[in-house]
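Researcher: Next entry in the queue.
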Amino acid sequence: MEGTHLIIREEEYRRMQSLLRRILVEARAKVVFLVDKNGQLLCSAGDEGEYDTTALGSLAAGNIAASGGLARLIGEKEFSILFHQGEHDNMHISLIADRVILVVIFDVTTPVGLVRLKVSRVSGEISDLIRTVEEKMKEAESGDLFEEITDEDIDKLFK
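Model: Structure for this entry, 159 residues:
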């Protein structure tokens, strides 16, 4: 199911937003994004208006893919955490459940250790949530969409 797009229902989306808001507040971040490995924005918290979310999601996914290639070259499976330090802002990128990418942007006054700690505490919950989403997707795929339709319903439709 890794190659398929995630179908997130409202309940899971609200939970996702809650987890991202928690990171935003506890890690003193400016903005937090959750994107899939294709670079599609799933959810965000904070002032994302300042950022091109399409470009940011695509580049974060590309960054994870490139670092995965580098990891394999040195015999590692992957690098699940990346950190980019800037003059004014920093970016913490982490791969969660081998399925989604968490991007946290924070300024230089926020300690990197604080961000890593808060992200690590919430990553397990995000991973559990992604598993729930995948399970619901599998249930929906395995169900027959027409099993509840009766012959009578078909007759009514075509009369």
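Model: The chain has four helices and five strands.
Researcher: Noted, moving on.
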